[in-house]
Design brief:
alpha/beta, Rossmann fold, six-stranded parallel beta sheet, 5 helices, 6 strands
Length: about 140
């Protein structure tokens, strides 16, 4: 972490659920600082940045992942991007939170698990679904 007891977060995809649930809860903690947001369009990124007080925006999610000011990456995109983004963030030494489904299939899930296991000092989380899975 950064040494001042703050957790600096970048959001890659800050849509409806992120705005309804995650951002309001995160800003309630003084230990959280919203650093960078990357949405599909510059306009959307600017709107989110202004509303939630992010320091900056970027058009490329890789910039958020590689930003030395960021401790954790919150991935709120569609699941087809979760594996690539999560693995890049873990490789960059960032904690990762994936909104909704972890990824697209078992193979991708196992790749993500292996990547997370290779970085035991990092946290890789998936947001639990609001429903029960019946096996």
């Amino acid at each position: 972490m950064n040494g001042d007891d703050k957790v600096r977060i970048a959001f890659i995809g800050a849509g409806g659920i992120c705005e309804q649930r995650h951002l309001p809860n995160l800003i309630a903690f003084p230990e959280v600082e919203l650093v960078t947001v990357c949405n599909r369009s510059p306009e959307s990124s600017r709107r989110i940045a202004e509303k939630w007080k992010f320091r900056r925006t970027t058009a490329d999610w890789r910039e958020a992942v590689n930003d030395a000011d960021v401790d954790a990456i919150f991935i709120g995109t569609w699941p087809y991007m979760h594996r690539e983004m999560a693995m890049a963030a873990l490789a960059a030494g960032k904690h990762v939170f994936c909104q909704a489904r972890m990824c697209m299939d078992w193979r991708e899930a196992m790749q993500m698990v292996a990547s997370a296991a290779s970085q035991p000092q990092l946290v890789n989380m998936v947001c639990p679904p609001p429903h029960r899975v019946r096996w």
